[in-house]
Write a structure and sequence with these properties.
The protein has 21 helices and 26 strands. The protein is α/β, with parallel strands linked by helices. Among the domains are: 140 residues, Rossmann fold (3-Layer(aba) Sandwich); 160 residues, Isoleucyl-tRNA Synthetase, Domain 1, CATH 1.10.730; 92 residues, OB fold (Dihydrolipoamide Acetyltransferase, E2P). A six-stranded parallel beta sheet has the order 3-2-1-12-13-7, sandwiched between helices. Bound molecules: ligand ME8.
């Protein structure tokens, strides 16, 4: 079973931004998933280093195009490393292995008369590097990028693309998965419904010198798109490594943005047909990211640099956000606010808390070791879960149910569905832990079952999220005390219930996702700081505002105070909370004399379960702050009514 996936090769005219990161992360998610599923995977990315754009960028910097490309392609490699991209190869179009294949492909087409020379005149867009017919221009400018066009007349070489139009229409119609999503497929069919010209594949050297020379005419270089598209076959050995090529071609997915759908679905498909090669199984054109509603560009100053986001929020938070926020195929708008929202809710609250809660309870009640699943004299695991899960899928059934749905989402590149599906299960587990309340469980068997259920659920979730968040998936395993690396496991095997061995020692580690505090600034700008995770894991247990609201805090006044016999620390207080007087035992005898307490306004926890301390009943708790061996009662800065709620 083999799987070959590609990203576009990116122009080295500038450094990469989140748009480039988007396609590459998506390809990485698929590559990692398929590897886990046992596929032999080839994941290709790279850089497009010829053509006018790159030549101009080099001129601007006052360096040769080669030096420029040598320097700039590193920016892409560095970003992919930082994003944990697991590409198997990185192709540069200035490499010999690529140039040779481009020339070979040109020669094949020239020899079979699919390439011919003709005089040509028309409107040329420097930025798009293509000719337009006068009727296509928009107010005299390029209909695609809106920039100025030049009138050019020259001899050039052409590829007989028009010959393949009817065949291509039929291929697209017969293969619904060839172009995805469907809306894009219809767009291409619409484009092909109009007359299709031949493709100009050369540029005279006197106008553009930075390109691969045509093998049959040294006065010309190859059109950058003909050069670039060939990367998908040059990297895997076309015409120089037959076995390698046979193993990998045709590719399973070409992932790209909607901006370059025509070049891939029309130019590339017809080029392949002319070369007698089968077409890729799928070309997937995803949507476009804008930033706060605007097109991203350096000149607008809204260029989103992935390095900064990774430094601020972590690599997996960014990977998760890109894959979860927008359905793959639709356009999306990037804002830090949305990113922070995802981090705080999905990652910190839902996933991070679930792990830290589970592990801390295991630490506290089970000496830090994964407890066994079933205690003979107690309820079975199924009973345990069924009680809390009234709906399907139960956690236990999730290995088959979830795997099927998850796999079908992944095969359709519906990353957001795959993730929301997993987050539904994470939500179920949070509900489960809340209802099962293991911290209050007295029955040891039930407690063991609950804790096993939670840790085994987390172990499996880690496998599911690993393709999206490789570091987080592995970190969950590490903290559960599992020594293996997820990438060395088999997906189907590792999602089977019961894989977690009881008795292993957990290793509570870093907080998975620290909450990010959001601070609004002028306009729509958001600055954010990551809260430090220095506090011990137990203290980091965050609660929601609703959970906090469960504590009934009231203003009270101490009416009476007396020592409790034989106790050094305890005082018996009578506290007036407006509607009633409460008897409360407080451990403040070493810090206050009974007399000085009378008339003090204090904060009382009014809904605490009654307790007996040294034989005296206590109906609440008085709040005090400690430090340097001294306890100080919490009071008020001004007048407050007895019984008012403290919020
Ligand atoms: O077109 N939103 O390179 P390129 C989403 N060299 N994706 C975006 C994006 C955005 N705002 N901006 C860029 C080229 N992308 C050619 C490709 S392939 C044989 C040659 C992504 O550097 C998206 O994948 O302009 C888009 O198709 C690609 O970067 C364009 O990269």
């Amino acid at each position: 079973m083999k799987f070959y996936i590609t990203t576009p090769i990116y122009y080295v005219n500038d450094i990469p931004h989140i748009g480039h990161a988007y396609t590459t992360v998506a390809a990485d998610v698929m590559a990692r998933y398929k590897r886990l599923c046992g596929y032999q995977v080839f994941f290709l990315t790279g850089t497009d280093e010829h053509g006018q754009k790159v030549q101009q960028a080099a001129e601007k910097r006052g360096v040769t195009p080669q030096k420029h490309a040598d320097e700039l392609h590193i920016a892409f490699k560095n970003l992919w490393k930082k994003l944990n991209i697991s590409n198997d190869d990185f192709i540069r179009t200035t490499e010999e292995r690529h140039k040779k294949v481009v020339q070979k492909a040109l020669q094949i087409l020239f020899d079979k008369k699919d390439i011919y020379k003709e005089s040509y005149e028309g409107w040329y867009c420097l930025s798009d590097e293509r000719f337009w017919m006068e009727k296509d221009l928009k107010e005299g400018n390029c209909p695609d990028c809106g920039r100025k066009v030049e009138y050019i007349k020259e001899w050039n070489y052409f590829f007989r693309m028009s010959n393949y139009r009817d065949w291509l229409i039929q291929h697209i119609k017969e293969n619904p998965r060839f172009i995805m999503p469907e809306s894009r497929r219809n767009e291409v069919l619409g484009f092909l419904g109009r007359p299709l010209g031949d493709l100009c594949i050369s540029r005279p050297k006197e106008r553009l010198s930075w390109g691969i020379p045509l093998p049959f005419d040294e006065n010309y270089v190859t059109y950058v798109w003909f050069d670039a598209l060939v990367n998908y076959i040059s990297a895997i050995g076309f015409e120089y490594d037959k076995d390698k090529f046979k193993n990998w071609w045709p590719s399973n997915h070409h992932l790209l943005g909607k901006d370059i759908l025509t070049t891939h679905s029309v130019y590339w498909s017809t080029m392949l047909k002319a070369l007698d090669l089968p077409l890729p199984e799928n070309i997937f054109a995803h949507g476009w990211w804008t930033v706060n509603g605007e097109k991203m560009s350096k000149s607008r100053g809204n260029f989103v640099n992935p390095h900064e986001l990774i430094d601020k929020y972590g690599v997996d938070a960014l990977r998760y956000f890109l894959m979860r926020e927008v359905p793959f195929g639709l356009d999306g708008d990037f804002s830090q606010r949305a990113l922070i929202g995802r981090i705080n809710s999905d990652l910190a609250n839902d996933l991070g808390n679930l792990l830290s809660r589970t592990l801390n309870i295991i630490k506290k009640f089970k000496e830090g070791k994964i407890p066994p699943e079933i205690d003979g004299k107690n309820r079975s695991m199924e009973q345990n879960i069924q009680e809390y899960f009234k709906y399907d899928p139960t956690l236990k059934g999730f290995e088959s149910y979830a795997a099927n749905s998850f796999n079908s989402f992944m095969c359709k590149l519906e990353f957001h569905y795959a993730l929301s599906y997993i987050w539904k299960i994470i939500g179920d587990m949070n509900e489960y832990v809340q209802k099962a309340a293991p911290w209050a469980e007295k029955d040891d068997g039930i407690l063991s079952n609950t804790l096993y259920t939670l840790s085994e659920g987390l172990r499996i979730i880690a496998v599911y999220i690993y393709p999206f968040m490789p570091e987080t998936g592995q970190e969950i395993w590490n903290q559960l005390g599992i020594k293996e690396r997820i990438e060395n496991c088999n997906f189907k095997e590792s999602i089977k219930w019961g894989g977690l061995k009881d008795g292993i020692e957990i290793k509570i580690g870093r907080q998975l996702f620290p909450r990010v505090e959001e601070k609004m600034e002028i306009g729509d700008e958001v600055t954010a700081t990551v809260t430090e995770s220095a506090v011990a894991a137990e203290e980091r247990q965050l609660i929601s505002i609703d959970e906090f609201a469960k504590v009934d805090l009231r203003v009270g006044e101490i009416k009476q105070a007396e020592k409790i016999e034989k106790s050094k620390k305890l005082l018996k207080l009578k506290v007036d909370i407006g509607t009633e007087e409460r008897q409360v035992v407080a451990g403040i005898a070493e810090h206050y004399t009974p007399e000085e307490l009378i008339g003090k306004k204090i904060v009382l926890v009014a809904n605490l379960k009654p307790a007996k301390l040294m034989g005296t009943e206590s109906h609440g708790m008085v709040l005090a702050a400690g430090g340097d061996g001294r306890l100080v009662l919490i009071g008020f800065d001004g007048e407050v009514k007895l019984g008012s709620k403290v919020k």
